Amino acid sequence: MSGQQTTEKSFFEKAAYIVTPGSVVFALLYYFGYTYRSAYYAHFGLGVGDLGFTPQDYLLGSPAAVFLPLWMLLVLGIIGVLAFRALERWLSHPDGAERRGPVIRVLGALGVSLLLLSFPVFLEPTWWRTMMWFLLPVGWLRVLLPAVLVAVGGLLVLCAMYLTRDPQRRGGRFWGITEGLLVSATTLIVFFALARYAHGAGTSAAREEAENNFRDTTQVLIHSRQPIVPTAPNVQCTDQGAAHLPYRYQCTGFRVLAKSSTRYYLVPSVHQAGWDLILVLNDDNSIRVEVRGED
Fold first, then answer.
1. Region of residue 213 (phi > 0: left; psi between -120 and 50: alpha; otherwise: beta)
2. How far apart are the C-alpha atoms of 92 and 220, rounded to whole Å?
3. Separation between Cα atoms, residue 8 and residue 18, nearest integer Å
4. How buried is 216 (Cβ within 10 angstroms: 0-12 exposed, 13-18 middle, 19+ buried)?
């Protein structure tokens, strides 16, 4: 009986190891996908709450939101582990005892300095934006580099603490709590960097999509019962006459930016400055929409 109970407990423990990390990964991918799509459609003045996206839609948007920073963090993590192991072996040599103290002080001072950088990075005061922020090139480097440097600072402090202690003292309660706090802070910093990158990636993707004339969207031909006011010079709306009733008005030059269960959100197929209006049409019997291929 006791053996059966042990087996059942072991099964549930194994299941927890699988389900819990999977749930966390699922929730993070959902959040980053949501952040990416929110920033994308906010650039056009739309809220994702009006578009009726499903969790699967947000998950499909997550690779574009986090692939690059996760790949960079993975590469940096591998380099950091290899560098630390090399440093530890170098300090473990018989003549490395006298070098251990200066190395620990340098790592600790550099780590604390980078951790103090977290205040301007997260609070973003005016002097930070005017003096430091705009020194970095526009793009992912400006978004990721400050937060990554703060995370590196936390890891350097952890390395200094590890090298300070003897192997017999590395399991102490104080050191364990301190390391847990530093690991938690570093994790939050990485989360902050990923969330900011996802938002910036969504905005950049929307801007690039508009500059490329929405080539990745569907081109449509609109038949309407009522006249439609063109939203850009390239949009053509003509009256086909009574012979085409009830849909006598025909409009070309539109693309579908988004589609909800009740509405179409249309944009001009040629992007022009000053003509960024989105045409919203109810998906009912007042219009008929035909999908068109590329010209």
1. left
2. 70
3. 16
4. exposed
Residue 264 pairs in a beta bridge with 259, 281
CA dist., res. 260 & res. 281, Å (int): 11
| b/e sequence 118-140, b meaning 16+ C-beta within 10 Å | bebbeeeeeebeeeeeeeeeeee
Q: Is 281 helix (H, G, I), strand (E, B) or coil?
A: strand
Q: What per-residue string of b and e applies to 217-229 under the rule 16 or more CB within 10 Å gives b? A: bebbebbbeeebe
Side-chain half-sphere of 21: how many Cα atoms within 13 Å? 5
Q: What is the DSSP letter of 277?
A: P
Q: What angle do CA 144, 150, 153 make, to 5 degrees?
A: 135
144 in Cβ contact with 69 (< 8 Å): yes
pLDDT band at 42 (very low <50, low <70, confident <90, very high): very high
Q: How far is CA 15 from CA 2, 8, 11, 25, 102, in A?
A: 20, 11, 6, 16, 46
Q: Which two tokens stand for residue 175?
A: 């050191």
Task: Map tokens 């705009």 to a residue.
Answer: 134
Q: For the chain, percent helix, then strand, then coil, each to nearest 5?
A: 65, 15, 25
* Alpha carbon distance 41, 258 (integer Å): 9
pLDDT bin (cut points 50, 70, 90) of residue 25 is confident
- 26's tokens: 């699922």
Give pTM, 2 decimals.
Answer: 0.78
Whole-number Å distance between alpha carbons of 24 and 31: 11
Q: CB-based contacts of 68: which residues, under 8 Å, 6+ apart?
A: 140, 197, 201
What tokens does 207 get? 């801007």
| Distance (Å, whole) CA 39 – CA 64 | 13
- ∠167-172-176 over CA atoms, to 5°? 105
Q: What is the pLDDT of residue 8?
A: 46
Which residue carries 């053996």 as its tokens?
Answer: 3
